[in-house]
Specification:
Layout: H1 3-24, H2 33-42, H3 73-93, E1 103-115, E2 120-131, E3 134-145, E4 152-159, H4 187-190, H5 202-207, E5 211-216, H6 247-264, E6 268-278, H7 280-291, E7 297-301, H8 319-325, H9 348-353, E8 360-365, H10 373-389, E9 412-417, H11 425-438
Parallel strand pairs: 4-5, 4-6, 6-7, 7-8, 8-9
Antiparallel strand pairs: 1-2, 2-3, 3-5
Helix pairs in contact: 6-7
The structure holds alpha-D-glucopyranuronic acid.
Amino acid sequence: MTPKCMINVCFLMICVGVSRMAGAQGQSWEAPADRLGQLEERDATTLYDENRVPDYVLPPLLVNADGSPVRDARQWVMRRRPEILSIFERFMFGRSPIGGTPTSSFSVREAAGSALDGLAKREQVRFEFARGTERAGMDLLLYLPREAKGPTPVFLILNFGGNHTISVDPSVERPKWPEGSDPGLVRSLKSERGDRAGRFPLAAILGRGYGLATVYYEEMGPDRGDAVSQGVRGLFNGRQGRDGWSSIGAWAWGLSRAMDYLVANPEVDSRRVTVMGHSRLGKTALWAGARDQRFAMVVSNCSGCGGAALSRRHYGETVKRINTRFPHWFCEKFKSFNDDEGALTLDQHMLIALMAPRPVYVVSADEDLWADPRGEFLSCLAADPVYDLLGVPGLEAETMPGLDRPLLKGRIGYHVRSGGHDLTEYDWRRVMDFADRHLEINRE
Ligand code: GCU
């Protein structure tokens, strides 16, 4: 172990210790005992006891692959950052298309001057992706505040059930699937208009001067292991190796295509687009934000294992569990680490660090122990030295804050919210507080 590495480990061990002490004084979050008890009873094979978290050593962020230290911002940008991005690509999310990118085009299918009872303007945009004779596509729904005085900052977020589920707006189109598609295999065929409206508090978002753009994730590639030849990955069927792109890779690729459109829309403030996602789509938002630096800010909501949470902690969901249940989310090579996360030259603090110096916000939930709230916080903490190196404030605290006590000051924001695995209006409001501050939204 290099001396730097030792320092990092000791630092983290001290932080964990201090955080427990602070918790005893009621200031810092501790996993709720009743929830812990329930989970331990339900599933004894999963580690939920903080005292049993193994010792681990995180791969150093500021040491190059050849062992030399990263001395300044330039070396980070020119050398270490590309190195880390490439490690995530090769071992976790897979490489996006090698040997030719599909062409991507979009057309505005509908532009309505008024929607949502006069609160918004609405656009629906169709994307076509082509490679040779193969075709794929996706639909984007955009709401902008109707009374916007200039280009609007926008949140771009994938949705789980179809664009028609995010509000009861009757004009939003359902995704189109080939005649006879099986509702058992395609979520959006079963979902109803407005089903997921609770996760998209549009009045609050638009009322604060933000726009919202969303795409149904499965249009880019069904969320199943047997669907590699469908959606955008289908354009490259037969050309995938052990590091060929994963489902998350395909969904993140789609987010960048959506960004192409947002950049081209003069009503959008394209320098203030935030990519955001919940759960598996939070993992996707992180990967999209790491790859595409046009995203000014990145938000991970309850992303857990493979997202913001440190894998080496083994707490809650592990690499083996996620690779077994969702083998298509990551590339084949990631499975080699099922029983040995320690052999990975990455951990998730490095994914957070790839956002630097841009603002990044991580949300955990009190009862969502499967996603390891503490592991998410520690990941943010371990990413902080990169923000420091780049000369901007990172995480403002060294111990976990209390429940519902958001950290908003530095460019790494964090909160652990009361309740379970969800994306709530409380989360949105804190994320908007953070965005107001760090994207310097001027409301005059
Ligand atoms: C499962 C999975 C998580 C994932 C979540 C989701 O719980 O284990 O990793 O985040 O599904 O996306 O809903």
